[in-house]
Amino acid sequence: MPDEHRLEEKFLSQEAEKQISNQLDEVEQIEIDVKTDLLKILQGQADGVAVAGQGLVIKEDIRVQEIKLQTDSIAINPFSALFGQIQLNEPVNTIARVILTEVDINHALASDFVRSQMQSFELNVDGEIVSLKPEEIQIFLPGDGQLEFKGKVLLKEKGNTRLLAYTAIARPRTHSQPAMLEGFNCTEGEGFSIELVTALMQKAKELMNIPSYTWEDIAFSIKDIEVQKGTLILLLEAQVKQIPSLSSLISP
Protein backbone atom coordinates (compact mmCIF):
# COMPACT_ATOMS: atom_id res chain seq x y z
CA MET A 1 0.00 0.00 0.00
CA PRO A 2 1.34 3.52 -0.71
CA ASP A 3 2.40 5.78 2.12
CA GLU A 4 -0.96 7.55 2.03
CA HIS A 5 -3.70 5.64 3.80
CA ARG A 6 -6.59 4.43 1.73
CA LEU A 7 -9.56 6.77 1.80
CA GLU A 8 -11.68 4.30 3.77
CA GLU A 9 -8.93 3.85 6.38
CA LYS A 10 -8.66 7.60 6.84
CA PHE A 11 -12.40 8.02 7.10
CA LEU A 12 -12.89 5.22 9.63
CA SER A 13 -9.87 6.31 11.70
CA GLN A 14 -10.94 9.96 11.80
CA GLU A 15 -14.53 9.11 12.70
CA ALA A 16 -13.33 6.78 15.48
CA GLU A 17 -11.14 9.61 16.83
CA LYS A 18 -14.18 11.91 16.89
CA GLN A 19 -16.27 9.30 18.70
CA ILE A 20 -13.65 8.81 21.43
CA SER A 21 -12.86 12.53 21.75
CA ASN A 22 -16.54 13.35 22.23
CA GLN A 23 -16.67 10.96 25.20
CA LEU A 24 -13.68 12.53 26.94
CA ASP A 25 -13.75 15.64 29.13
CA GLU A 26 -10.30 16.58 27.86
CA VAL A 27 -7.82 15.15 25.38
CA GLU A 28 -4.43 16.53 24.47
CA GLN A 29 -3.90 14.14 21.58
CA ILE A 30 -5.59 11.06 20.19
CA GLU A 31 -4.65 9.08 17.09
CA ILE A 32 -6.52 5.99 15.90
CA ASP A 33 -5.32 3.96 12.95
CA VAL A 34 -7.74 1.36 11.59
CA LYS A 35 -6.09 -1.04 9.14
CA THR A 36 -8.72 -2.13 6.62
CA ASP A 37 -10.17 -1.43 3.18
CA LEU A 38 -13.66 -1.14 1.75
CA LEU A 39 -13.89 -4.81 0.78
CA LYS A 40 -12.83 -5.94 4.25
CA ILE A 41 -15.30 -3.52 5.85
CA LEU A 42 -18.12 -5.00 3.77
CA GLN A 43 -16.93 -8.46 4.87
CA GLY A 44 -16.89 -7.33 8.51
CA GLN A 45 -13.11 -7.48 8.88
CA ALA A 46 -10.22 -5.23 9.86
CA ASP A 47 -6.52 -6.12 10.15
CA GLY A 48 -6.27 -4.31 13.47
CA VAL A 49 -6.64 -1.03 15.34
CA ALA A 50 -3.85 1.04 16.87
CA VAL A 51 -4.59 3.77 19.41
CA ALA A 52 -2.18 6.37 20.79
CA GLY A 53 -3.37 9.04 23.20
CA GLN A 54 -1.98 11.61 25.62
CA GLY A 55 -3.66 13.56 28.41
CA LEU A 56 -6.98 11.71 28.33
CA VAL A 57 -9.41 12.87 31.04
CA ILE A 58 -12.62 11.04 31.94
CA LYS A 59 -15.17 12.85 34.12
CA GLU A 60 -12.55 15.40 35.27
CA ASP A 61 -11.02 13.06 37.88
CA ILE A 62 -9.61 10.10 35.94
CA ARG A 63 -6.61 11.07 33.83
CA VAL A 64 -4.25 8.91 31.78
CA GLN A 65 -0.94 10.52 30.85
CA GLU A 66 -0.35 8.23 27.88
CA ILE A 67 -1.81 5.09 26.33
CA LYS A 68 -0.73 2.96 23.39
CA LEU A 69 -2.97 0.12 22.31
CA GLN A 70 -2.80 -2.44 19.51
CA THR A 71 -5.36 -5.10 18.59
CA ASP A 72 -5.15 -8.27 16.55
CA SER A 73 -7.31 -8.63 13.46
CA ILE A 74 -10.94 -8.04 14.33
CA ALA A 75 -14.42 -8.98 13.13
CA ILE A 76 -16.62 -5.88 13.02
CA ASN A 77 -20.17 -4.91 12.21
CA PRO A 78 -19.82 -3.63 8.61
CA PHE A 79 -22.82 -1.30 8.80
CA SER A 80 -21.68 0.52 11.94
CA ALA A 81 -18.11 0.65 10.59
CA LEU A 82 -19.28 2.55 7.52
CA PHE A 83 -20.47 5.28 9.91
CA GLY A 84 -17.21 5.40 11.81
CA GLN A 85 -18.26 3.24 14.78
CA ILE A 86 -16.47 -0.02 15.58
CA GLN A 87 -18.72 -2.74 16.98
CA LEU A 88 -17.15 -6.14 17.51
CA ASN A 89 -18.72 -9.33 16.21
CA GLU A 90 -16.11 -11.49 17.98
CA PRO A 91 -13.80 -10.92 20.99
CA VAL A 92 -10.45 -9.34 20.11
CA ASN A 93 -7.05 -9.66 21.78
CA THR A 94 -5.37 -6.40 22.75
CA ILE A 95 -2.04 -5.25 24.16
CA ALA A 96 -1.92 -1.86 25.92
CA ARG A 97 0.83 0.23 27.50
CA VAL A 98 -0.54 2.75 29.98
CA ILE A 99 1.39 5.52 31.72
CA LEU A 100 -0.01 7.13 34.89
CA THR A 101 1.58 9.95 36.88
CA GLU A 102 1.67 10.11 40.67
CA VAL A 103 -0.43 13.29 40.64
CA ASP A 104 -3.08 11.75 38.40
CA ILE A 105 -3.24 8.51 40.44
CA ASN A 106 -3.86 10.37 43.70
CA HIS A 107 -6.36 12.73 42.08
CA ALA A 108 -8.28 9.68 40.88
CA LEU A 109 -8.06 7.94 44.28
CA ALA A 110 -9.65 11.01 45.89
CA SER A 111 -12.45 11.19 43.30
CA ASP A 112 -16.05 10.38 44.17
CA PHE A 113 -16.10 7.60 41.57
CA VAL A 114 -13.10 5.69 42.95
CA ARG A 115 -14.19 6.23 46.56
CA SER A 116 -17.61 4.80 45.70
CA GLN A 117 -15.88 1.66 44.36
CA MET A 118 -13.91 1.05 47.57
CA GLN A 119 -15.53 -1.93 49.24
CA SER A 120 -14.95 -3.76 52.48
CA PHE A 121 -13.17 -7.09 52.33
CA GLU A 122 -13.20 -9.84 54.92
CA LEU A 123 -10.29 -11.69 56.50
CA ASN A 124 -10.27 -14.95 58.41
CA VAL A 125 -8.18 -14.26 61.50
CA ASP A 126 -7.82 -17.47 63.51
CA GLY A 127 -11.39 -18.48 62.68
CA GLU A 128 -12.88 -15.03 63.30
CA ILE A 129 -14.12 -12.88 60.38
CA VAL A 130 -12.65 -9.37 60.44
CA SER A 131 -13.76 -6.62 58.05
CA LEU A 132 -11.49 -3.93 56.59
CA LYS A 133 -12.84 -0.94 54.63
CA PRO A 134 -10.42 1.50 52.96
CA GLU A 135 -11.20 5.10 53.83
CA GLU A 136 -8.27 6.99 52.29
CA ILE A 137 -5.29 5.99 50.20
CA GLN A 138 -2.39 7.83 48.59
CA ILE A 139 0.37 6.37 46.44
CA PHE A 140 3.85 7.85 46.08
CA LEU A 141 6.39 6.93 43.41
CA PRO A 142 9.83 7.89 44.73
CA GLY A 143 11.73 5.89 42.11
CA ASP A 144 14.02 2.86 42.38
CA GLY A 145 11.05 0.57 41.71
CA GLN A 146 9.32 1.39 45.00
CA LEU A 147 5.66 2.05 45.75
CA GLU A 148 4.86 3.99 48.93
CA PHE A 149 1.35 3.87 50.38
CA LYS A 150 -0.30 6.09 52.97
CA GLY A 151 -3.88 5.51 54.02
CA LYS A 152 -6.62 4.89 56.57
CA VAL A 153 -8.89 1.87 57.07
CA LEU A 154 -11.92 1.07 59.21
CA LEU A 155 -11.35 -2.19 61.09
CA LYS A 156 -14.38 -4.11 62.37
CA GLU A 157 -13.67 -6.99 64.74
CA LYS A 158 -15.48 -8.50 67.71
CA GLY A 159 -18.34 -6.04 67.28
CA ASN A 160 -16.05 -2.99 67.53
CA THR A 161 -15.01 -0.53 64.83
CA ARG A 162 -11.82 1.51 64.93
CA LEU A 163 -9.89 3.71 62.54
CA LEU A 164 -6.29 2.88 61.71
CA ALA A 165 -3.76 4.85 59.69
CA TYR A 166 -0.73 3.23 58.07
CA THR A 167 2.24 3.68 55.78
CA ALA A 168 3.79 0.93 53.66
CA ILE A 169 6.62 0.45 51.19
CA ALA A 170 6.41 -2.28 48.55
CA ARG A 171 7.81 -3.40 45.23
CA PRO A 172 5.54 -4.84 42.51
CA ARG A 173 6.06 -8.26 41.00
CA THR A 174 8.55 -8.38 38.13
CA HIS A 175 9.74 -11.10 35.76
CA SER A 176 12.62 -11.89 38.13
CA GLN A 177 11.11 -11.50 41.61
CA PRO A 178 7.76 -11.71 43.42
CA ALA A 179 5.99 -8.74 44.97
CA MET A 180 7.85 -7.58 48.08
CA LEU A 181 6.65 -5.73 51.20
CA GLU A 182 9.65 -3.78 52.48
CA GLY A 183 8.05 -1.85 55.30
CA PHE A 184 4.77 -1.42 57.18
CA ASN A 185 3.98 0.98 60.00
CA CYS A 186 0.78 1.83 61.89
CA THR A 187 0.73 5.61 62.41
CA GLU A 188 -2.65 6.06 64.09
CA GLY A 189 -4.80 3.77 66.25
CA GLU A 190 -3.97 0.80 68.42
CA GLY A 191 -2.14 -1.11 65.70
CA PHE A 192 -2.55 -4.43 63.91
CA SER A 193 -2.16 -7.79 65.62
CA ILE A 194 0.38 -10.20 64.16
CA GLU A 195 -2.48 -12.56 63.30
CA LEU A 196 -4.28 -9.77 61.40
CA VAL A 197 -1.13 -8.80 59.49
CA THR A 198 -0.60 -12.46 58.54
CA ALA A 199 -4.19 -12.75 57.26
CA LEU A 200 -3.83 -9.44 55.41
CA MET A 201 -0.64 -10.61 53.67
CA GLN A 202 -2.35 -13.85 52.64
CA LYS A 203 -5.27 -11.88 51.19
CA ALA A 204 -2.87 -9.60 49.29
CA LYS A 205 -1.11 -12.67 47.88
CA GLU A 206 -4.43 -14.11 46.69
CA LEU A 207 -5.38 -10.84 44.98
CA MET A 208 -2.01 -10.52 43.24
CA ASN A 209 -2.19 -14.11 41.97
CA ILE A 210 -5.58 -13.65 40.29
CA PRO A 211 -4.82 -14.51 36.63
CA SER A 212 -7.16 -11.91 35.16
CA TYR A 213 -9.70 -9.26 36.05
CA THR A 214 -13.03 -8.46 34.44
CA TRP A 215 -14.48 -4.99 33.90
CA GLU A 216 -17.62 -4.60 31.79
CA ASP A 217 -16.90 -6.58 28.58
CA ILE A 218 -13.12 -6.55 29.07
CA ALA A 219 -11.04 -9.33 30.67
CA PHE A 220 -7.49 -8.13 31.31
CA SER A 221 -4.29 -9.16 33.06
CA ILE A 222 -1.33 -7.07 34.18
CA LYS A 223 1.76 -8.51 32.50
CA ASP A 224 4.31 -6.04 33.81
CA ILE A 225 4.58 -3.03 36.13
CA GLU A 226 7.43 -0.53 35.91
CA VAL A 227 7.80 2.07 38.64
CA GLN A 228 9.77 5.20 37.82
CA LYS A 229 10.08 8.42 39.80
CA GLY A 230 6.64 10.03 39.62
CA THR A 231 5.38 7.58 36.98
CA LEU A 232 3.74 4.14 36.87
CA ILE A 233 3.87 2.15 33.61
CA LEU A 234 1.50 -0.80 33.09
CA LEU A 235 1.66 -3.41 30.34
CA LEU A 236 -1.76 -5.02 29.94
CA GLU A 237 -3.14 -7.88 27.88
CA ALA A 238 -6.88 -7.92 27.36
CA GLN A 239 -9.64 -9.74 25.57
CA VAL A 240 -12.36 -7.29 24.58
CA LYS A 241 -15.81 -8.71 23.90
CA GLN A 242 -17.27 -5.33 23.00
CA ILE A 243 -15.98 -1.77 22.95
CA PRO A 244 -18.00 0.02 25.66
CA SER A 245 -18.59 3.75 25.76
CA LEU A 246 -16.39 5.56 28.25
CA SER A 247 -19.47 6.81 30.08
CA SER A 248 -20.63 3.22 30.75
CA LEU A 249 -17.19 2.27 32.08
CA ILE A 250 -17.34 4.90 34.82
CA SER A 251 -21.00 4.68 35.76
CA PRO A 252 -21.44 3.72 39.43
Explain what this protein looks like in three dimensions.
The model is unreliable at 1-5 and 245-252 (pLDDT under 50). A seven-stranded antiparallel β-sheet has the order 1-3-4-6-14-13-12. The protein folds into two domains: 7-106 and 212-249, no CATH class; 109-208, no CATH class. The protein contains seven helices and 14 strands. 12% of the residues are buried. Helices cover 23% and strands 49% of the residues.
Secondary-structure element sequence?
HEHEEEEHEHHEEEEEHEEEH
Relative helix content:
10-25%
Shape: elongated
Helix and strand composition category: alpha+beta
Low-confidence stretches: 1-5, 245-252
In whole angstroms, how far apart are the ends? 45 Å
Relative strand content: over 45%
Number of strands: 14
Mean pLDDT: 82
Q: Radius of gyration from the CA trace? A: 22 Å
Write the layout of secondary structure elements.
Layout: H1 7-23, E1 26-35, H2 38-42, E2 45-46, E3 48-58, E4 62-71, E5 74-75, H3 78-81, E6 92-101, H4 102-109, H5 112-117, E7 121-125, E8 128-143, E9 146-157, E10 160-171, E11 180-188, H6 194-208, E12 213-215, E13 218-228, E14 231-240, H7 246-249
Antiparallel strand pairs: 1-3, 2-5, 3-4, 4-6, 6-14, 7-8, 8-9, 9-10, 10-11, 12-13, 13-14
